[in-house]
Amino acid sequence: MSEVEIGGEHGAEPRLTAAEALFLEFLSQQEAEAPVDFDEFLRRHAALADELRRLHDDWLGVARVAARLREDEDGRAATTAKRGDSELHLASDGEGPGSEVAGELLRRLVRERTSAARYERREEIGRGGMGIVHRVFDPVLRRQLAMKVILARKSDESPQERERTMQRALARFLEEAQVTSQLDHPGIVPVHELGIDATGRVYFTMRLVRGRELRKILDLVKRGEEGWTRTRALHVLLKACEAIAYAHDKRVIHRDLKPANVMVGRFGEVYVMDWGLARVLGRRDAHQLELRHSSDVSAVETDRRRFGDATPGSPLMTLDGNVLGTPQYMSPEQAANRIDAMGPRSDVYSLGAILYELLAGHAPFTPPGAPHTPRSVWQALMAGPPPPLEQAAPDAPEELVEICRKAMARKADARYASALELAAEIEAFLHRRPVAAHAPTLPYLARLWYERNRTLARVAGAALLLVAALSALFSWWHHVEQQEVERLGRLRLAEALATEAERQFLPDPELVPEIERWLREVDALLPTEAATRERLARAKERSDLRETQQLEAPAVALERLRETLRPAVAAWLAPLRSLRATTLEAPAAAEAWRAALADLAGDPRFAGFALQPRLGLVPLRKDRDSGLWEFWVALSGAAPRVDESAPRGYALEEGSGIVLVLVPPGEVDVGFPSRVEVELTQVAAPGRHAVEAPLLVSKFEVTQAQFTRVMGFNPSQFIAGYSKSGKGGGEHAITGLHPVESVVWADADAFCGRLGLELPAEKDWEYFARAGARGAVWWHAEPELAAGVKVDGKLHPSLRAIVAELAAHENYYDASCADVQPSLAALDGDDGFAYHAPVGSKAKNGFGLFDVLGNVAEWCRDRYEQPGMKLVKRDFRGGHWLAADPPLLFLSRVQTDNPSVPQSYRGFRPVAPFAPAPRR
């Protein structure tokens, strides 16, 4: 068996950067007889000077804190948190990081400084959010230990802000050392020494644990390797429960229990590790546990189909950049950031989540076969319980299923009151004694008696006779019990079917049998809704908490299935069944594809690409102006009727589906570095961008009718049917052909996913929006304005020309907008549209695309993470109906926003790669 040595925090973490390695070398040299001057050190490593200087500033922050404490000998005495016979002494009074960091404790360490030089440092063996862990050798006692040193965090903050951050980190670091050192239990790694070395670094030493994470043990159980069985793993979990129960008796909760934080030694030792997030009950929490952003869950936000670097096991983070917990194992109250509601039962939930993983083979909310991100796991946790174990682990013993269900109850008061109670339940199961979470039916008790007395049964035959007699006597009880099990199974199935609904909306005819199966199961369940509602009402009347909890979520799921989910899936099924015939096999579709592909084969713009028919699309026409082919997205609505006499080229109706234009590959000079843009607005960084393959681009922005048809709701602020009279007497009405707006990024992305499309990359957006143009707008080739944007105090004539041409090309904030929204200074012009206009109301660009710089701005898929900022933003491009400045309508305008914030001027335009086969 391979062996891993762990001390403190562990796991697959990034290695040191070159600058960090050099700075650690510099610090170690300061303990030598001839320390190195830092300026000289910088000259030796000039290439990394900036990073080394920032690391040095962080360490100086620690030194300044220590110096102030050394001068202030009048510190407050250590506070004591006392409850009953349990007593935990902490030097931090928890009044905030800006007070005196860790009170008298740190002063004492400064006065009585120990020498870290006693220890011979070996290799790094782990690092976490607060510290780096080294293996060290103590030559005095001839033993190997683990030394954890507080880790300076990279930051672009000011020196004062970095010092405050270091003060908070010091308080947490010292509290972790104190809490762990006072939890004197065989299952908790002891701390030996806490000190400050000559360079001002705070450290503590602890036992070096040799073993493996429970995470790896669970994998061995799943594969049946090295003799690891479910029963053997339960003994490990039992020991972990006992260690946590001891901590709870000391009024300490762990708050980050997960398989990665439980170590299993070679000889059966079990240790609960990483107490950096622990909290002492009855004291103000020193951790800043606010989520970075409630709607995005901070750094866990990611593409629905492009998951970035985040993995399901990644933690949620706090405002000050520390771990809040791991979503799969986090209790609902911790995920909701209800700090005052957290207590021992929160740790019980996490232990139950570990038991869930042992039984199901995967962590809660992360079933195999489907991608997951920390954000999606957190959202699933907030929405309801994980899939029932009867579904996730059908072979799991019913007693363990009930134990897990009780430990993971959504409401804390429905869980086991303590980890000791949970340990007693697991121990009862292992010894085949009755489990309190399981109903004490006579068949169940008889089975346990038989399993405990197998030897007696084999010798005397008494057990067999007893089982037979009990089976006859209690057959009626068994029948009743079976009915109850079936009823509960149906209720849990309703929740599972509601969760599965979103997976039915994919543009794949191969899913038809699965969707039909889903509809049959839903139809079989819906007749139980009325009875479920009645039972729920009676349970609430008699204050039956257990039955209320069993029925609430299924009742909501049944209502959603009946009102929205089943009708939507059924409506999706009909066009999906005929998708292949409609778009590929029908004579008209086949002929359209033959004509389009034959024409494209002779088009030099698509040379080198052997284009093939694509399921879900039907060629409509070749635009007479652009010479580009346009296609109908069959699942988005009815085929648009071609009308060459109409300005749009189509007689669009609210039932019309999406039209995609096949844009050839090419290159674009992103951005436009003329003086007019540089002086008036932020522009995209200029550069050459290549679109290497043909791209399908929506001819129009997605309409409200199309979005409602595909998604089942309309998020727009100015919704179809809305009408308002302006001060000038004009009537302004919104129809389903107006663009959808106020749509958040995730819903736009979900819409695209249902149709096999996606949101564009911003550079691709600028390529198809420009359509070969090189100016600030697509219809006007603007020259270089060497004289600046103003001439004699007035706008440059070129800029005035662009403004004068706006009304014919894009919908912006003009007189009609000001008529009903008089909050801005309107640009010249009046097109009669007070809000956004029906799609295609203005001119089209060289690729035949409408509204690229007006009507509504358009979401892109790019994400922006600025250093020091806590919010991940999404890009959107183009002008809109509320744009009151010409620069807002420039092609290179860069705009970003919180992806969860709806705006009435923002919609989207989907794209898709044509997926061509390169010619051989």
**Oligomeric state of the chains in view:** single chain
Please identify the structural class as seen in this structure.
Answer: alpha+beta
Q: Describe the strand arrangement of the main beta sheet, using strand numbers.
A: 4-5-6-8-7
Helix tally equals: 28
Q: What name goes with the CATH superfamily of the largest domain?
A: paralog of FGE (formylglycine-generating enzyme)
CATH class of the largest domain: Alpha Beta
* Rg from Cα: 33 Å
- CATH topology (fold) name of the largest domain: paralog of FGE (formylglycine-generating enzyme)
Overall morphology: globular
Low-confidence stretches: 1-15, 65-87, 89-103, 288-310, 317-323, 476-482
Query: What number of domains?
Result: 4
Count of extended strands: 34
Q: What is the beta-strand fraction?
A: 15-25%
Helix % is 25-40%
| Annotated CATH architecture of the largest domain | Alpha-Beta Complex
- Main pleated sheet: 5 strands, antiparallel
Mean pLDDT: 78
Distance between the termini: 51 Å
Structural key phrases:
single chain; 920 residues; alpha+beta; Phosphorylase Kinase, domain 1; Transferase(Phosphotransferase), domain 1; five-stranded antiparallel beta sheet; 28 helices; 34 strands; disordered N terminus
Q: What report would you give on this structure?
A:
The protein is an alpha+beta fold. It folds into four domains: 4-207, Phosphorylase Kinase, domain 1 (2-Layer Sandwich); 213-438, Orthogonal Bundle (Transferase(Phosphotransferase), domain 1); 474-577; 582-914, paralog of FGE (formylglycine-generating enzyme). Helices cover 38% and strands 15% of the residues. It is built from 28 helices and 34 strands. Strands 4-5-6-8-7 form a five-stranded antiparallel β-sheet, covered by helices on one side. The protein has a five-stranded antiparallel β-sheet with strand order 17-18-21-24-33. It is globular. 43% of the residues are buried.
